[in-house]
Amino acid sequence: MNNHKYDAIVIGGGHNGLVNAAYLAKAGKQVLVLERRHTVGGATITEEVYPGFKYLIASYLISLLRSEVIQELELARHGLEIMPLESTFVPLLDGNYLADWPDHDATKHEISRHSKRDAEAYDEYSRTMRRLALAVRPLLDLIPPDPTSVTPNDLATMAKVKGTLSGLRKDDFYLLARLMTMSAGDFLDEWFESTPLKGTKATSGIIGTFMGPRTPGTGYVLLHHYIGDIDGVFRAWGFARGGTGGLSQAIASAARSLGVEIKVNSPVAQVIVKNGVATGVALENGDEYFADIIVSNADAKRTFLKLVDSKNLPDDFINDIKRFRISSPACKVNLALDGLPEFTSLPKGKEALLRGSIEIAPSIDYLERAYDDAKYGGWSRKPFMDALIPSLLDPGMAPPGKHIMSMFVEYASSDLEGGWNEEKKAEFLDVVIDTLAEYAPNLKNIILHKHIMTPWDLENTFGLTAGHIFHGELSLQQLFFLRPSPQWSNYRTPIQNFYMCGSSTHPGGCITGAPGRNAAMAILEDRP
Amino acid sequence: MLKSSPFHSRTAPLMQADQWRRWAGYRAVSAYEMTHDREYLALRNACVLIDVSPLCKYHITGKDSLSFLNRLVTRDVSKCSIGGMLYTPWCNSQGKIIDDGTIAHLSENTYRLTSAEPNLRWLEDNAIGMEVKIQDVSEEIAALALQGPKSRDLLMTLTDAPLASLKYYRFVNTSIAGVPVMISRTGYTGDLGFEIWLESSQASTEAVWDALIQAGRAFALQPAGIWALDVARIEAGLIMLDIDYTPANKAMIDGQTSTPLELGLDWAISWNKGNFVGRKALLAEKQQGSSVTLVGLEIDHKEFERQHNQLALIAPYPFTAWRTMLPLAFEGKQIGYATCGVWSPTLKKYIAFGHLQSQFAINGTIVTIDLDVDRYRRPFNAKVTKLPFFNPARKKDVL
What we know:
The complex is a heterodimer. By secondary structure, chain A is of the alpha/beta class. Chain A has three domains: 5-44 and 65-82 and 241-325 and 465-526, FAD/NAD(P)-binding domain, CATH 3.50.50.60; 116-236, no CATH class; 330-412 and 417-453, Alpha-Beta Plaits (2-Layer Sandwich), CATH 3.30.70. Chain A has 17 helices and 20 strands. Chain A has helices at residues 15-26, 67-72, 104-114, 116-136, 152-166, 170-181, 184-191, 195-206, 218-224, 244-257, 300-307, 315-323, 364-375, 422-439, 443-446, 455-462, 514-526; strands spanning 5-11, 31-34, 47-50, 53-55, 82-84, 88-91, 97-100, 229-230, 233-234, 238-240, 261-263, 268-274, 277-283, 288-296, 331-337, 357-360, 379-388, 403-412, 447-453, 498-500. In chain A, the strands form five sheets. In chain A, strands 1, 2, 11, 12, 13, 14 and 20 form a seven-stranded mixed β-sheet that branches. In chain A, α1 (15-26) runs parallel beside α10 and α7 runs antiparallel to α8 (195-206). Chain B is of the alpha+beta class. Chain B folds into three domains: 8-53 and 138-224, Probable tRNA modification gtpase trme, domain 1 (Gyrase A, domain 2, 2-Layer Sandwich); 57-137 and 259-288, Alpha-Beta Plaits, CATH 3.30.70.1400; 292-385, Beta Barrel (Elongation Factor Tu (Ef-tu), domain 3). Chain B is built from nine helices and 19 strands. Chain B has a six-stranded mixed β-sheet with strand order 10-11-12-9-3-13. Chain B is globular and about 60 Å long. In chain B, 46% of the residues are buried. Classes of the chains: A alpha/beta, B alpha+beta. Chains A and B meet through α3 and α4 of A and α4 of B.
């Protein structure tokens, strides 16, 4: 029994939990973070699963991390260093390839090999997406207003939303409305004609979501991934030195320096609620901690269906949370390699492309078929992959001369027919490696160790319900003022003094730090 | 990673100071020599040879090619007979300029359009429902600009084509060193000059280049790069895409776009040829008056020199054109911006392009431009003048 009382307790030391704790501490609160695992970071983590090789077992890249978070928490001082990915390489089985370079002319030359028309359209497409992203981006930093409410706060925020969008050119506004409601595939068909270009561009619309590129709503996901920038370059992805674990260590260090106390190996069993007011938490080992503010970094389902006794919650809210869409198709594969994979279609002299993203996404149809295979409780026979060789960017990730390869893989259903087990995992891992080996035939000869995180593992390891990397689908019916539930999209909950700061809240998943930061602002509004 | 021009095998060995630049994804020459002085002087006094192959080129053929072009561009292409060329801008439906270039009427229902930026998609989108074939021939056709007062004399030693009587913006088909070429009386220098168009095979480009250089010895021919060209085109009052205007399809906001009327291209709009893309918006602008007008500026270089002398310094001359946006003010308030400027060795004037709120675009108006005097930024007077700054009779004369 621990009688020490904190101002705030954050359940879960994921990156948003840490960001939230740091902001609360910065405002003078005494904050305790309780993490069930042996280390903080949640899915923002690097782990040495195989000696000498640092695996990115969950998240792998950073783009949407708000620069406000980096500046305000002084993350650079705490060791954060982000290296931009230079390129995208899309190998094709017919010996050809597509590449996106950091240079405009270089990219144009690559695309015009496939279609001159697309090479021209690409410029305009990129500019249009940048303009839309620029317009939408301020919404990330807003506490979502309730459009039905007439409180001064909500009205003021609605006015901000209106102000943000009214800066858009007329044609852009219409386009935005269309993009938000259509599929990434249909949107890209309007712009481009070449198959691989549409394939690789469509991947932004499906990453992390259990939808195919032809599913309406993926247009928004496409835009969501354009909002990120590194040093002003939109749609740029970066690799944190040491992997994404390097980022969470930097945030943890910033939090500690602000006075945050972090306890690992401390799984929370329940939120203690008295007369509709949250007062503390009970750990699985029976320890109890008390505070005026309780914040959950866990996803909405885990938070309200597991950590809170349902008697403390209104029925309609519980129903909202129950129907919150959270099935996940995303897996992570890590390979320890004795050398570099040799892609048949990679021309000599362009090996630099291995330092960027390597995407197995030859066409929209390929991606849609991959989804088709999985949507009835199966997995893709030919999966989509977003691969990366981090050791080429940060030699510290693997022993000298060796490499690691990190692959984000879709689709493998979290609701696998018959359920996931070790055999099924091994089977799907083989599917992934067989698929990649079609593009890089030497792959199997250089694998020293292989590792897969299926949705099942992501759930068991990190407590992500269904293993969903965004804590719930980024589909229109559960975005902004609907995330995770209408009326409770402002980080507050039906239980007094109990808040949410994870990706189930606006603006959703990816390593953004935004839910954590926004939640801290909401909390500090209530309890300055 | 940059593309090489079809003349690269000949231009590369001439390069003395690694002064390459990018032009439409190609490696292009800024200046062959350590400075571009001699290249510019040759342009105005003898002749220069400039590789302009990176220009985008499209062949437009088919029954509807004339109506397609007349729908696309602002000028009346029906006025362009076979053997003729015309300069024209083209716009989007808001009348905002997308690009500018030339159209050559090659033969019945066959035209060639040149542009600064790739336009294939825009052309195709505007050809919907028309019987017209658009072919990107940018890489198949090489182009050289032979410009300067001696250019005609030089060319006449290489071909029997009737160049003496070839009028401004007309072309002839002939051959040089056995290579079929099209020679047009066109250019981007405001001087007497020609452009030579040929297929881009290495054998052809080398043969033509070598023949020109060989014959050019008698005419002080100088290979030249973009720096020399840039001085000449500013003197000639010729606008440049990306420098003097942002193409509408590249603009991030409306405020970055321009119209042909704002750029002084009202002469290049044919109001009576029927509808064309942007006509309605341009007509409205013509009726209401443009809010911005392109003017020439003569910057008070005497005062610029005086202020340097006061600091015991010699005033630097901007021999290479600057291409940055500089604010222009009237009585201390910004009323426009300049987009490029250079010292004109021919006119002995410091000249610039200004985009002014139209009420200030009156000849003789004095505006101010901020320039650096050593470590200090100071306003200098600039007098509004008409463009072009330099327009020699030889540009259009025939023998």
